[in-house]
Task: inverse folding
């Protein structure tokens, strides 16, 4: 197999250090003869290769799935070339093209690991790179900053890259337990028969993070939690949890099933009952954040899906920065039993940090009593040994791109529908002049997010 040349724009950014380099390290040292790559890292800072690799080393040590060894890291650094350039300078691309020719680099995969406002300019610059239009491009989420910019971006990118070479990545679609949702749902009649509003009271998708925005103020302050997490990752999860049986596990069938859910999302009328935004205290002191910024670092929302299966069952979504924990989980809360004292059954799909499934049901307390107690069955599929063998999301998706497999990449119509929904939420929130509530770092977020559920007699499952 030919060697793929990955050019990573945004090579000094958080995504590259935290996720991409550790993923490439894993793939490079995994001894897969099929995997051959070269990494051209684009950054505007003045680093030698050695300096760049010395910084990368600490990130790889901390985040790579496979064990760090000096020998392996040295092997990995042989694949890395740091290339200094300001990617907004259109003249700089001629020199980049010369660099590719001198070093005989073809089979390009361009990775746009940058804020979406830079996608256009990089694509324009690449028109000066002879082989670029034959290459593939991986675009990070969010694709655009709103519906209008996403449409324009789509049009412009398709002028340059052919549609089959455009890979819109959403790394949540590479996560093991997100991939598992459909198997869990459809291959288990004990779940599939109950997977509807008759039996399910609410669905809760939670993705709290303990980190703040770290060094990403430049990107994050223009984005916020709804654009950064909900429009893409969490709506993808919602549509997989809610979709109908896709008839086959083919990518087109699944994509169509997801699209039907996004179309059925009920437009919000009363924003006060649907959305709570928050911002952690101290956010204004973060680097590159505008003074008085009202960007939300927390979002909680309630969504309804207007179809027969989900009529009347709310889907709650919450995510935020600087909260008291980092996890992703999907809680399916079943309707109460006719026995008043029996707590509700709950099924939790644990996506991270541990992967597994948790089921809560009722038993008789042992002994001479009729009291009810909860049985908590916790299946954990992450053990240390297993983790070493589970390809991480980015590894999977990067390999899929090399193989031209688009099954688990976002499609344009999904992006369009979810932007449409998110834009309206933003507009309504602004129109009603609703506050962005302050919350303490290390907390569960603003208390107004609890009230969002309490209005329907529900509570977040923690
Ligand atoms: N961080 C994460 O965990 C994830 C991020 N993403 C997505 O990845 C994208 C980037 O995010 P993230 O890495 O966090 O953002 P950062 O702000 O950390 O990184 C942005 C990068 O762009 C570079 N850059 C900006 N302007 C220029 C320029 N003119 N010339 C050259 N380089 C430039 C920055 O360089 P410099 O260092 O010099 O400022 C930096 O390397 C976003 O779309 C985000 O949604 C997706 C999944 C996960
Ligand atoms: O896309 C993004 O994802 C990360 C969270 O990813 P995870 O795999 O660690 O759950 C988030 O921190 C970042 O803000 C966002 O851009």
Result:
């Amino acid at each position: 197999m030919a060697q793929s040349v990955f050019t990573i724009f945004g090579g000094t950014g958080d995504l590259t250090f935290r996720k991409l380099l550790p993923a490439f390290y894993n793939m490079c040292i995994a001894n897969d003869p099929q995997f051959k790559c070269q990494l051209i890292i684009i950054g505007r800072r003045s680093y030698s290769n050695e300096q760049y690799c010395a910084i990368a080393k600490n990130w790889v040590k901390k985040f790579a799935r496979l064990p760090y060894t000096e020998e392996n890291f040295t092997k990995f650094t042989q694949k890395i070339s740091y290339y200094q350039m300001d990617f907004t300078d259109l003249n700089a691309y001629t020199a980049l093209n010369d660099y590719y020719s001198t070093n005989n680099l073809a089979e390009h995969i361009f990775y746009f690991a940058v804020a979406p406002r830079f996608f256009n300019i990089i694509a324009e610059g690449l028109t000066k790179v002879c082989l670029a239009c034959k290459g593939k491009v991986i675009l990070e989420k969010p694709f655009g900053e709103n519906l209008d910019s996403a449409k324009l971006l789509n049009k412009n990118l398709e002028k340059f890259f052919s549609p089959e070479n455009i890979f819109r990545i959403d790394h949540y679609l590479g996560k093991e337990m997100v991939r598992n949702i459909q198997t869990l749902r459809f291959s288990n009649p004990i779940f599939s028969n109950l997977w509807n509003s008759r039996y399910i009271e609410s669905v809760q998708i939670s993705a709290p993070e303990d980190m703040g925005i770290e060094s990403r103020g430049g990107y994050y302050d223009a984005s916020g939690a709804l654009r950064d997490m909900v429009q893409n990752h969490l709506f993808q999860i919602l549509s997989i949890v809610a979709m109908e049986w896709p008839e086959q596990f083919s990518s087109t069938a699944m994509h169509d099933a997801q699209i039907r859910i996004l179309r059925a999302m009920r437009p919000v009328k009363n924003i006060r009952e649907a959305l709570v935004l928050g911002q952690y205290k101290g956010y204004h002191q973060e680097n590159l954040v505008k003074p008085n910024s009202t960007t939300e670092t927390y979002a909680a929302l309630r969504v309804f899906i207007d179809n027969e299966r989900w009529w009347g069952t709310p889907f709650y979504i919450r995510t935020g920065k600087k909260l008291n924990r980092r996890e992703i989980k999907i809680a399916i809360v079943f309707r109460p039993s006719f026995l008043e004292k029996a707590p509700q059954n709950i099924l939790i799909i644990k996506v991270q940090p541990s992967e597994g499934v948790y089921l809560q049901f009722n038993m008789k307390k042992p002994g001479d009593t009729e009291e009810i107690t909860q049985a908590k069955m916790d299946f954990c599929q992450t053990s240390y040994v297993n983790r070493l063998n589970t390809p991480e999301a980015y590894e999977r998706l990067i390999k899929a791109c090399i193989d031209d497999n688009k099954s688990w990449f976002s499609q344009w119509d999904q992006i369009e529908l979810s932007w449409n929904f998110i834009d309206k939420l933003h507009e309504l929130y602004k129109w009603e002049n609703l506050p962005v509530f302050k919350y303490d770092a290390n907390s569960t977020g603003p208390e107004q997010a609890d009230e969002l559920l309490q209005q329907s007699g529900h509570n977040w499952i923690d």
Q: What stands out?
A: The radius of gyration is 23 Å. The mean pLDDT is 94. Residues 10-15, 18-19, 43-45, 86-88, 113-116, 140-142, 171, 215-216, 218-219, 228 surround NDP (ligand 1) (CB under 6 Å). Residues 172-390+411-454 form a domain with the Dihydrodipicolinate Reductase; domain 2 fold (CATH 3.30.360.10).
